[in-house]
Amino acid sequence: MPEPYLNGAYYGPSIPPPPSSKTYHRPSHRSSSGSSCCCNPFTCCCKCIFNCICTCIFQILCTLLIILAVIGFILWFILRPNKVNFHISNASLTQFDYNNNNTLSYNLHLNVSIRNPNKRIGIYYDSIEARAYYHGLNFGNLTNIDPFYQGHKNTTDLDLVFKGFINSGQLGSELGSKYNEEKGNGVYEIGLRMYMRIRLKFWWIKSKKIKPMIKCDLNVPFKTNGTFERTQCHLDW
Q1: How far apart are CA 74 and CA 190, in angstroms?
Q2: What does the radius of gyration of the chain's CA atoms come to, in whole angstroms?
Q3: Distance between CA atoms of 232 and 10, rounded to whole angstroms?
Q4: Which residues on neighbouring strands pair with residue 37, listed in sequence order?
Q5: How many domains does the chain have?
Q6: Alpha-carbon torsion angle 56, 57, 63, 69, nearest 10
Q7: Angle made by CA atoms 203, 115, 218, in degrees to the nearest 5
Q8: 70 lies in which domain range?
């Protein structure tokens, strides 16, 4: 049987209301981690102690660095240290012969000038060892240099004499050719190394022993084949 005619719009069957539901909030990780300290007071106490110790150590180190920097600046301002100058003021070579027996005979005189320009620092030269070299070949050693004290703004001269002979073996082709070339020119390249043990003195205070090395590269004329030029040496600590 046909449906009776319906007046108005037809919206379909009625929709029942949604069932009532309770809201649920999931606990966040932040809240759980924040409550862990309250749950474990021992952990909180350890963290606080560790942070306090680190902070104290950092502050102590910073304070010590500042104090050391201030002390260093005061000492520098009072002492005004200057570098000691070493020069070879004169050099003479009266014998430098290499014979067929592989023997090198030498007679070398050097005058070393040491200048201490400091006003408040003296220097104790406890020991000095001097070595003479010819293109890396050590042909002379001096160990009998007397120790001495050098006062403020003082210049001290040392006379070093290397005399004798050494059985050097074969010089080799390269060194032999250099020797023949320099022999023809009348000027030899001689190296001087001075190994020292010194102590610094300011007022009544003496420093521990310092071991500098003095390096001098010289062009020494043979006998009267020229004039030696004053040469500055280099100081290595």
Answers
A1: 43
A2: 43
A3: 117
A4: none
A5: 2
A6: -170
A7: 145
A8: 52-81
Determine how many CB atoms are found less than 10 A away from the CB of residue 67. Answer: 10
Residue 42 φ/ψ, nearest 5 degrees:
-65, -40
Query: E strands along 29-121, which residues?
Result: 85-98, 103-116
**218/133 same-domain check:** yes
CA dihedral for 17, 23, 24, 25, sign (positive or negative): positive
User: Of the candidates 212, 56, 12, 202, which has an alpha carbon nearest to the alpha carbon of residue 129?
Assistant: 212
CATH code for the domain of 119? 2.60.40
Question: pLDDT tens digit string along 56-102?
Answer: 888 888 888 888 888 777 766 666 788 999 999 999 999 999 887 77
Same domain, 150 and 194: yes
Between the CA atoms of 31, 34, 35 and 39, what dihedral angle is there, to the nearest 10 degrees? 150
Length, in residues, of the chain: 237
Please report the pLDDT score of residue 36 as a whole number. Answer: 46
Q: Is 145 helix (H, G, I), strand (E, B) or coil?
A: coil
Q: Which pTM value belongs to this model?
A: 0.70
Whether residue 113 is contained in a domain is answered as yes
Residues 73 and 175 in one domain: no
Q: Is residue 30 part of a domain?
A: no
Contacts of 129 (CB under 8 A, 6+ apart): 141, 142, 143, 145, 194, 195, 196
Q: Which of 60, 81, 102 delimits the end of a domain?
A: 81
Contacts of 170 (CB under 8 A, 6+ apart): 102, 176
Q: Are residues 131 and 189 both part of a single domain?
A: yes
Give the whole-angstrom CA distance, residue 67 versus residue 73: 10
Does residue 200 share a domain with residue 109? yes
pLDDT band at 167 (very low <50, low <70, confident <90, very high): confident
